Amino acid sequence: MLHAYLSRRQFLLHSGSAVAGVAVLGSAPAFLLPGPAWAGELKTLAQPVATTLLQMCRAIFPHAELDDVHYAPWVQGLDAEAAADPAVASLLGDGVRTLDAARGKPFVDLEMSTQLEVLRGIESSAFFQKVRGKGVVALYGNKAVWARLGYEGASWDKGGYLHRGFNDLDWLPDPPEEASPKPA
Amino acid sequence: MAKFAADDASVVVIIGSGAGGGTLANELCQQGIDVVLLEAGQRQSSAAFINDEWDSFAQLAWLDKRTTSGSWRIAKDFPNLPAWICKTVGGTTTHWAGASLRFHDWEFRARSTYGEIKGANLLDWPVTLAELEPYYARAEDKMGVTRTNGIPGLPGNNNFKVFYNGAIKAGYGQCHTGRMAINSRPRAGRNSCLQLGFCFQGCKSGAKWSTLYTEIPAAEATDHLELRTGAHVSRIEHDARGRASGVVYFDASGVEQRQKARVVCVAGNSIETPRLLLLSASGKFPDGLANSSGQVGRNYMRHMTGSVYAVFDQPVHFYRGTVMAGAILDEARNDPGRGFVGGYEMETLSLGLPFMGAFLEPGGWGPDFARMMSLYTHTAGMWLVGEDMPQESNRVTLNTAVKDQWGLPVPNVHFDDHPNDLAMREHAYRAGTRVYEAVGAVGVHRTPPYPSTHNLGTCRMSAKAEDGVCDAHGRTHDVPNLFISDGSQFTSGGAENPTLTIVSLAIRQAEYIGAQMAARAL
């Protein structure tokens, strides 16, 4: 059943009917840029480790409509945890070494399909679980990601959706009044 | 607000301020009875509620450590979060969706109706629908349930439009925007629904009934209520005759306090209520208070649940508007020909993007998962909720190996699905899929049960003392001035969202306690 999503996604991207095409790239954190600036944004992780983790994050929740800047807070969250807990730092460091050793060349240089194979091979590991677990909140709780995926977030400050499209769906008939009375 | 002395043994002490405890407190205060209401959480307000799923979760959810065991998937995905319930004034009435359906007559007679089901510890309730009907009517009026008392239904949102059209095309005949304790018109001093889409996060418009801003302020206005927040009860004490004499709790500063009581009512939801009785074991009650039957903590029910999320070519924006204002009632019947006993409802449901990430497919990752998340705006969703079988081995016990912040053993929640639960879930998943495919879904996903929101049955009502913990009024069989006042009383789960029944039982219990006190029988 999931295969249906692939063609649907492509349909949406090409038809332009999804919000995915909206460009709202904010200013990139300095650590995403090459060069010494990276180090300044990281508390403890070495730049190559952070770069590899970023690629791992992209492979865990791969969204063509998201940019590195959307994944960066996830890596920053891991970095902060590593800074507070040496056990996490070594878990991440060792994990990245495992990724780089898996196919004889750096993980970041592998095709996405190969990266996914490598990750499937370690998905029950503590390292993978730590990174994935962090991403659920760090990625899908990120307001910049909401904007890209079309979630509108808080509604109270805008008066809710009563006058802003709670029932604006127009590709199906409106239910009869006994099932769905008109708003007061 | 009233203030009562710790050694005032004339008060009724109620533990928990949610649907059961909050309602009971008000109903007693209205009769002029003095009540001390102990709530472990803090007091929030509509103004303080947060339109953000994770921030709201941190504000309202019960996050004290719990452990899990058994074959349910929760034990793997959310081992320390068996239940999604609240620790705040108003309890889980801050979080509930508002669906307010009465039980069917036969659901009070589960054992007689279903017969003997292997592995199920079925029993008829010691109360009938006919006895409860006047209280259901009072609860519906109190809560302002739509489609009762002349209150119009809520207008359907986008998610309902998909749901309704699919239901009709799939051949269902009973589909509408539900009986909801959410104002479709201003009523009882509360606003009407603004279609915020954040019912689960505490209703900022106050349209949804919650004891936080209905029962509790009404009780406070009588001058018979003292609400103590941040009060975590650790033990119920008894006297030499075996009658409850008071409770011990940690106050907001963590200092141990003792409140005397004439009557004690426990309404901590179905995990904390049995835990507290077990923690109150004594020389006289070595297996826990009110546990001569051995049934305290057993028969834990959580409803058969699951969700179906479907993706469409066209946008839905299902997160806009009232979350659960949509119900298909056709499957809420007992028809063993379907391969299981008991029934279920289908109800509209949406999650915000953050909680979709957490709950759509726990542990999920990779391109398939990300694609579903990318199609969020084109997604419709429903919740499946039906009767699950009470089983003796599904139970809340004390985990003495793990302690909470007070040094008390945490509750362990053990759960295995009964074959009847599994058969019903499969049927419901197929039915939900049929509904969405009837209106052109291009992809359908079966989402497993969330951490339990409907926690029931761990101190169940029974006609005979050996079969359960309390009688038809929630009075424990063993301790005459100790009452169970929440969903723990449920003898069986029924198919319906439980809050309306909890509130109805609380109104009835308050009447009973008032009469017993007046007669000096309590």
Distinctive features:
heterodimer; A: mainly alpha; 53% helix; elongated; B: alpha/beta; FAD/NAD(P)-binding domain; six-stranded antiparallel beta sheet; 12 helices; GMC_OxRdtase_N (chain B); oxidoreductase (chain B); flavoprotein (chain B); FAD (chain B)
Task: Break the fold down into its secondary structure elements and pairings.
The complex is a heterodimer of chains A (184) and B (522).
Chain A: H1 3-15, H2 37-41, H3 47-60, H4 68-84, H5 86-101, H6 112-121, H7 126-140, H8 143-149
Helix pairs in contact in A: 3-4, 4-5, 4-7, 5-7
Chain B: E1 12-15, H1 19-30, E2 35-38, H2 53-60, E3 67-69, H3 74-77, H4 110-114, H5 129-143, H6 158-169, E4 175-176, H7 215-221, E5 225-228, E6 232-238, E7 244-250, E8 256-260, E9 263-266, H8 269-279, E10 304-311, E11 327-328, E12 344-348, H9 353-359, H10 367-374, E13 379-386, E14 395-403, E15 409-414, H11 419-437, E16 443-447, E17 482-484, H12 499-518
Parallel strand pairs in B: 1-2, 1-9, 2-5, 3-15, 9-17
Antiparallel strand pairs in B: 4-11, 6-7, 7-8, 10-13, 10-16, 11-12, 12-13, 14-15
Overview of the molecule:
The complex is a heterodimer of chains A (184) and B (522). Chain A is an all-alpha fold. Chain A has a domain at 42-145. Chain A contains eight helices and no strands. The longest helix of chain A is centred in the middle third of the chain and has 17 residues, at 68-84. Chain B is of the alpha/beta class. Chain B has one domain: FAD/NAD(P)-binding domain (3-Layer(bba) Sandwich), CATH 3.50.50.60. Helix content of chain B is 25%, strand content 16%. In chain B, the strands form four sheets. Chain B has a six-stranded antiparallel sheet, covered by helices on one side. In chain B, strands 5-2-1-9-17 form a five-stranded parallel sheet, covered by helices on one side. In chain B, strands 3-15-14 form a three-stranded mixed sheet. In chain B, a hairpin with a 5-residue loop joins strand 7 (244-250) and strand 8. In chain B, helix 1 (19-30) runs parallel beside helix 7. Chain B is globular, with a radius of gyration of 22 Å. Chain B starts with 11 loop residues before the first strand and ends with a helix. Chain B: Keywords: FAD, Flavoprotein, Oxidoreductase. Chain B: One of its GO terms (molecular function) is flavin adenine dinucleotide binding. Chain B: InterPro entries: FAD/NAD-bd_sf, GMC_OxRdtase_N, GMC_OxRtase_C. Chain B: Residues 390-506 form the Glucose-methanol-choline oxidoreductase C-terminal domain.
